[in-house]
Design goal:
- The protein is an alpha/beta fold and 432 residues long.
- 33% of the residues lie in helices and 19% in strands.
- The chain is built from 13 helices and 15 strands.
- It has helices at residues 11-15, 23-38, 57-74, 109-122, 150-163, 178-184, 189-207, 241-244, 264-270, 278-294, 302-305, 324-333, 422-428; strands at 84-93, 98-102, 135-139, 168-170, 212-217, 225-230, 252-256, 307-308, 321-322, 339-345, 352-356, 359-364, 382-388, 391-397, 404-409.
- Strands 7-1-5-6-10-12-11 form a seven-stranded mixed sheet. A six-stranded mixed sheet has the order 4-3-2-13-14-15. A two-stranded parallel ribbon has the order 8-9.
- Helix 5 (150-163) links the parallel strand 3 and strand 4.
- The radius of gyration is 21 Å and the shape is globular.
- The two termini are 22 Å apart.
- 47% of the residues are buried.
């Protein structure tokens, strides 16, 4: 392995028949060995750069076949993508379930591999990267662009998902659109070759990803507290209660493109003077109308694009920012029987929390990449979420050791102390 050429690093797996039974495990092992041998000779972001990989037509076709295999398993055939933005889905986990979550990778392959190795060390994945029975892994979108290794990221995530059906969740971010790849992904030569060779296969793969995923870790009977995982925020006109208050048999709902008004349920509440949520419903109804009237591109989805406003909500197309009060209104209206406790999101490049009346209602995770485009981050955070004695709690995952730390209740501010401690920064740095 000494002196392994990064251009042949991934293709070694496909050429080695002895390792064919578990390509993901062996691929990661090769990458780890390569980095350990080469890290003193290269910049971190350049080690995995393999621009000539898809010069081999066979390798390109294998990757496209992998995209199609994932799409065949996950695409919703009853959704008309001419009239729908996509879909949102939900998963109800048992009380001993665990959710491992991390945000944007943006072509940073090293970040993903160290994260997966940390999950192995923590015991949530076995040595072959198979999830424990009740462990789910959620990725918050933005897998490509800004880095060199978008296709390697997609390859590993698809392999991980195929190895763990129903336990690895890949959310669609604003970077999972062909138009964005063509505009911002020119440095990723392999991704450019995929688009040129089979744009439809990549687009179909993107459409097979949910816009947002809701998860609960609660008793089977009784009200459930959902956590929303997303890239941006939410679509103002979408009514997740259709999904969240239904029985478990309803696992997803489509999101319409032409969203000129709020749902009938929200409109009805807004007209009911006796309803305790009339004010919140009226606010959402007005925001939906304002967004529809001012947004030229009706295919823009708040799930992919919306940001959190520090002060006032600003409706401005894909640059729309929603403030804490309006986010709280939307969450409170998201379900009747059940509830949505918090949003975890990516999209933005720095960690932040959104508070309303001394509780955290949305948290932005950091970008997991160190690249030439200036997205270098001090900390690269992942969470493990559990239910402990009826209380939803989150732990920061230390990537270097696989240990968890800073155990705290979801919605509290305590966990943010770690972001002001230089020593903990160092421990949490994904690239250590």
């Amino acid at each position: 392995m000494q002196g392994q050429n990064p251009n042949t690093l991934i293709t070694t797996i496909n050429n080695d028949q002895n390792n064919a039974n578990d390509p993901l495990s062996n691929l990661i092992e090769l990458c780890n060995r390569h980095w350990n041998e080469q890290k003193s000779k290269h910049n971190e972001e350049d080690i995995f750069f393999s621009p000539t990989r898809f010069d081999d037509e066979g390798e390109l076709n294998k990757f496209i076949s992998l995209l199609k295999e994932y799409t065949d398993m996950h695409r919703k055939n009853d959704i008309d993508y001419e009239n729908h933005l996509g879909f949102i889905n939900k998963f109800d986990l048992p009380l001993d379930g665990k959710i491992c979550m991390r945000a944007d990778l943006r072509g940073g392959c090293r970040s993903l591999i160290v994260f997966l190795n940390a999950l192995v060390t923590s015991g949530l994945l076995d040595q072959n990267f198979k999830c424990n029975q009740d462990c789910h892994i959620v990725f918050l979108g933005d897998y490509c662009d800004r880095g060199y290794c978008g296709t390697q990221i997609l390859e590993m995530l698809i392999m991980l998902s195929l190895k763990n059906p129903g336990q690895v969740h890949l959310i669609r971010g604003n970077n999972e659109y062909i138009e964005i790849n063509e505009e911002f992904g020119s440095d990723d030569i392999c991704l450019t070759k995929v688009i040129k060779e089979d744009k439809a296969a990549l687009n179909d793969f993107y459409e097979a990803l949910p816009l947002s995923t809701y998860m609960s870790i609660d008793k089977f009977e009784g009200p459930k507290r959902y956590i929303q995982f997303t890239n941006g925020l939410f679509d103002l006109a979408a009514d997740p209660s259709i999904l969240l208050d239904e029985k478990q048999s309803r696992e997803y709902v489509p999101i319409l493109i032409n969203r000129s008004k709020a749902s009938d349920r929200i409109v009805q509440i807004s007209k009911d003077d006796t309803h305790p949520q009339q004010r919140q419903a009226m606010r959402i109804v007005n925001l939906v109308k304002e967004h529809f009237d001012t947004c030229d591109d009706k295919k823009i989805s708040g799930y992919n694009w919306f940001h959190i406003a520090e002060k006032d909500t600003d409706i401005h197309g894909l640059y729309t920012k929603i403030n804490a009060s309006d986010i709280n209104d939307y969450l409170e209206l998201s379900a009747v029987i059940n509830s949505v406790k918090i949003i975890f999101r990516g999209h933005f490049h720095k960690h932040s929390v959104c508070q309303y009346e001394n509780k955290i209602i949305a948290e932005t995770m950091t970008v997991g990449i160190s690249t030439h485009r200036g997205y270098r981050v001090i900390h690269d955070v992942a969470y493990i979420i559990t239910n402990e004695n009826g209380e939803l709690r989150k732990r920061l995952l230390c990537k270097k050791t696989g240990d968890s730390m800073m155990h705290t209740s979801i919605g509290t501010k305590d966990i943010n102390d770690i972001f002001y401690n230089a020593e903990e920064y160092r421990k949490l740095n994904l690239n250590n």
